Amino acid sequence: MKRSLILWVVLTVCMLIIYSPLLSAKTIALWLCDEGSGQTLKDNSNNGHDGKLEGKTTWDTGKFGKALKLNGSPDRVVVPGSPDLTGSSAMTVEFWVNAPKQADYHIPIAKGVKGPGHWELYLLAGVGNFSSYIPDLGDFGGTQSVTDDQWHHCAMVWDGSSVTLYVDGKEVKKWTGLDGKKIVADNQELNIGSLVEKALWHTGLLDEIRISDVALNPNQLGFSGSLAAGVTTVEPGDKLSACWGKIKGQ
What is the domain-level CATH number for residue 30? Predict the structure, then answer.
């Protein structure tokens, strides 16, 4: 009886470990930025949203593993357009950034040209405050600077009625009263490192960029560790068989 109970407990733990990436949110795209070479930025969510490096975009030491290194114009990564890259009624966009002080606006990530369907996360000119502009919802200017040559985790969460900005896991500012609004989901391309219009180029390092089609709570954001821990190259069934095999061998 005791052995059966132990086996049941261990098996339950295995299941939680195996399926833990599925318990948080549906990931639209996840770019770990760990390639280290080549001209392709792989979408580690396996949803096929791979990007192409342009200009002199290269790789450097990241917050975790490697990171994208952008040096302003014409450095950027272009991801082909897809409606999947927008959560129309809920969305979370997050990334790690290490950027120097700057005079102009910086755009770490943006989708579509400015207008319906466009969304962007930007660093405010001069002060470098992490902010977001979504024409379908509004302009959300943050109050926390992230342009100090240090790594910072930035996240924008849209839950269908409010937009909240987080820096390093802490809420910076929240805007409410947005009930009934949606972001237009269209086929416009996504750029990492500039606007789609090839303007407001980003300078610095970017790492572990993730888009989710739900509003993540603070505990689900990737500021506490690498998102690579939730990425697997084997199927859950294979992992379960391996885990069960280890249990039976005890």
Answer: 2.60.120.200
